[in-house]
Design goal:
Distance between the termini: 28 Å
Largest sheet: 7 strands, parallel
CATH superfamily: Aldolase class I
CATH topology: TIM Barrel
Radius of gyration: 19 Å
Number of helices: 11
Structural class: alpha/beta
Length: 326
């Protein structure tokens, strides 16, 4: 069924003629915003760095600190072997589970440009040598995108391969960014986003709906910032609170609540209606594994939520971008 938004799976089918499946890679990177013992960093980060589920089979509980030490992150040869093994394991899993034929390579965990330029080149080259990837996706922070790194990423663009930079924003409110410990402001994000676009790279913007203290006014300000830099894609997450985090501690102390399904349906529809109509919506629901999640504990799975959102928008006669003012 066609969605009333420009969904990522449909974008990929239109571009490549069939589904494209992402292989999530942990390159052994750390993050400039947190220390090796897990202190500092974003208040919602639980130390896993969003590692793909099929790459962390042994996981069983909350995390307070990173499973990777600074010493391990600085050792290049094991990291090179690991990314190659992960790419092969991901391809095997996706082929067996979904019959996948086309793939993208997604450096997902922590800050994937936080290293020397030589190390980045060797890690990216090793991973990309494992197959023919239609998209190369690198998730990072605005304070880890110097010009030489952007030039390196742009060098991987080919006629048959797009290169995406997934750039974490979360909110356009500097007070919110400070409260959640992002370590940068909205202006720094905008500067990095514009430099990404100047290189011909595809820009994906990551935002969270439901952060403490925010409401519809702040959501629309965030959407306005993402629209203004002509972002090619957006990942919209409902707020999830993982255990073993500073945000988790604040939640348990009663400092804030998280959105119910009904409230997030309303907020997601509002955000979609104000997005540029051509922007690709790459995600609408956060999927923190249940055993790591403090809240929300009662929320439908992704497919059911998307079906309900699509039905709501169809009944309301709304679509992505119908309130966008260019």
């Amino acid at each position: 069924m066609e969605r009333p938004w420009n969904s990522y799976p449909e974008y990929l089918r239109r571009r490549y003629g069939q589904p494209v499946y992402r292989i999530g890679i942990d390159g052994g990177f750390s993050c400039p915003n947190r220390s090796a013992d897990g202190h500092g960093g974003c208040s919602f980060c639980d130390g896993t760095g969003a590692i793909a589920v099929y790459q962390r089979k042994a996981e069983s509980g909350f995390f307070r600190s990173s499973p990777y030490s600074e010493e391990a992150a600085s050792s290049l040869l094991p990291r090179l072997a690991s990314v190659e093994e992960q790419a092969e394991r991901g391809r095997e899993f996706l082929s067996r589970r979904y019959g996948a034929k086309l793939f993208s390579l997604y450096f997902q965990s922590f800050t994937n440009t936080y290293d020397t330029i030589d190390n980045l080149r060797r890690i990216y080259d090793r991973a990309l040598a494992t197959g023919d990837y239609k998209e190369f996706i690198v998730s990072t922070r605005p304070d880890c995108l110097p010009d030489d790194v952007l030039d390196l990423l742009a060098s991987y663009i080919t006629p048959g391969r797009q290169v995406w930079v997934e750039l974490g924003l979360q909110s356009a409110s500097d007070s919110t960014l400070m409260a959640i410990g992002r370590g940068h402001g909205a202006a720094a994000w905008r500067d990095a986003a514009l430099r990404v676009k100047e290189r011909g790279l595809m820009l994906s913007s990551h935002i969270i709906i439901g952060l403490p203290g925010e409401g519809k006014k702040e959501y629309l300000e965030t959407v306005g910032l993402v629209n203004g830099v002509l972002s090619d894609g957006v990942k919209i997450h409902n707020l999830h609170v993982p255990g073993g985090t500073r945000m988790g501690d604040e939640y348990l102390e009663g400092c804030f609540t998280v959105s119910s399904e009904g409230r997030y349906l309303e907020d997601a529809e509002l955000v979609l209606r104000h997005l540029r109509p051509e922007m690709v919506v790459q995600r609408l629901v956060c999927e923190t594994p249940y055993h790591r999640l403090l809240a929300p504990r009662v929320f439908p799975d992704k497919s059911l939520f998307l079906a309900r959102l699509g039905k709501r928008m169809e009944e309301n006669g709304t679509r992505q971008g119908d309130l966008f003012e260019g």
